[in-house]
Amino acid sequence: MATQYTHHEHLGHVVFITAAAAIGGFLFGYDSSVINGAVVGIQRHFQVGPVEIGFVVAIALLGSALGAWAGGGLADRWGRTRSMQVAALLFAVSSVGQMLPFSVWDLAFWRVVAGFAIGMASVLGPAYIAEVAPPAYRGRLGSFQQLAIVLGIAVSQLVNYVFARVAGDDVNNHIWLLQAWQWMLGACVVPALLFLLFASNIPESPRYLVMSGRTSRARQVLAEIESDDTDLDERIAEIQHVLRTERVPGLKDLRGKALGLLPIVWIGIALSAFQQLVGINVIFYYSSVLWQSVGINQSDSLLISFSSSIINIIGTFIAIALVDRIGRKPLLLIGSAGMAISLATAAWAFSFAQGQGESVSLPDPQGTIALIAANVFVLFFALSWGVVVWVLLGEMFPNRIRAAALGVAAAAQWIANWAITVSFPALAEWNLPLTYAAYALFAVLSFLFVGKWVKETKGRKLEEMG
Q1: What letter would DSSP give residue 400?
Q2: pTM higher than 0.90 for the full model?
Q3: Least confident of 183-192, 317-326, 354-363
Q4: Which residues pair with 354 in a beta bridge?
Q5: pLDDT at position 275, please?
């Protein structure tokens, strides 16, 4: 009984530091989707069209690709926790910058800085969590990152809704000295400072401590996070052996015969790309504009966006419950099938839109069907691809290339995300049903891809991946 109690105590400690590290994920969700409520306000305030607004929304994602690219190297140079502190400071500074822009172009600059911080957080969180989590709980603890992201998205939609209501349903109205959309963008400074506080108080990852020669500190941290029956000398020897046999992986280590990269790296890149190409972020970045375009007012459309975020959270909890139980691959296949059907249904419903320009509306029952289909899509994404891709990316690569491969896969994700985000306003204006049909096609392709190429990693030790 005693060992079980202490084991739970350890697990409680691991859950706490995992949750603290996942605040980076919360900021990532918050900062990337807060723009949803501000899009209309920015467009009116600076009087710009769909191409410029697509650019301002999407430019953050290029910053994210850079941050993801650089994040792994910085984590190896400065340590996991120091790098998190840097990301937290960048979040805080960029929030204030986005809140007080002089023009649409310096707003775009601060979005890039915020994006860089998001990209860093997207790599640091999963890597740190994978390094401190015991193998039996790794899938569930790895899911904390995605849970934090969806909570960040939901909180940002709720904050946006509150500011829109206070401003009397018009985000260009003033609250005190600033317009409502400026408050939306500035509110992120609060969680950013919280992240800084937590990142300054969690232990450094044992792997990094061993890597930088601080073995006795690594032993202390391992004693806090592993169960009492763990042989600490053996764990440290194991980590040392792995570190001795692995060099810090560079891009040249990812080279293979297949189109210049190792097959496993291509699988990671494809998983990342498919996660974005189904169009999930269109729902989170533009849903308020989307619902306004079919005749729903500003604050109601923000409320619908918030309800989608709640569905996203429910789906994430389902995934956390199932990922270590039924495995990674079955969840992905279920998700792909559900997404393909719901996206095709949404495409069909949007084809009934009536009216032109500002006064578009969907007739009944198509309007209701579109709303339900969009939310079913979010649910299937959340219970599968939303969580499982991050879990897989944290564990599917062999040790010697994990950091570099994760960086490349995460960068691919940001680039795919950018392509979808920057193209949506113009595509939607051109043909909304066809745009959704294209996302449905990607969902079908993702099903075929997983069936053929993805291997199950449930319950295997990180040291066994190869």
Answers
A1: G
A2: no
A3: 354-363
A4: 361
A5: 96
For the stretch 267-310, pLDDT in tens is 999 999 999 999 998 887 788 777 776 677 778 888 888 888 89
Structure tokens at 19: 């949750």
Counting DSSP H helices and E strands in the chain, the numbers are: 18, 2
- For residue 361, the cross-strand partners are 354
Give the number of C-alpha atoms closer than 13 A to the C-alpha of residue 189, restricted to the C-beta side: 15
| DSSP bridge partners of 179 | 174
Q: What is the pLDDT of residue 294?
A: 67
DSSP 8-state symbol, 354: B
Please report, as a single letter, which amino acid is at residue 178. L
Q: Is 389 exposed, middle or buried (0-12, 13-18, 19+ CB in 10 A)?
A: buried
Judged by DSSP in three states, 466 sits in coil
Q: Output phi, psi for 201, to 5 deg.
A: -120, 5
Whole-number Å distance between alpha carbons of 27 and 94: 12
Whole-angstrom distance, CA of residue 430 vs CA of residue 451:
34
Alpha helices in 2-49 (DSSP H): 2-33, 35-46
Tokens coding 240: 């040392």
Q: Which of the 8 DSSP states describes residue 43?
A: H
Mean of pLDDT values over 96-125: 93
Q: How far apart are CA 63 and CA 119, in angstroms?
A: 7
Structural contact between residues 460 and 370, judged by C-beta atoms closer than 8 angstroms: no
Q: How far is CA 244 from CA 137, 238, 305, in A?
A: 26, 10, 49
Q: With CA atoms as reference, report the closest residue to 27 among 156, 163, 214.
A: 156
Quick one: average pLDDT of 232-244? 85
In angstroms, how far is CA 93 from the centroid of its own chain? 21
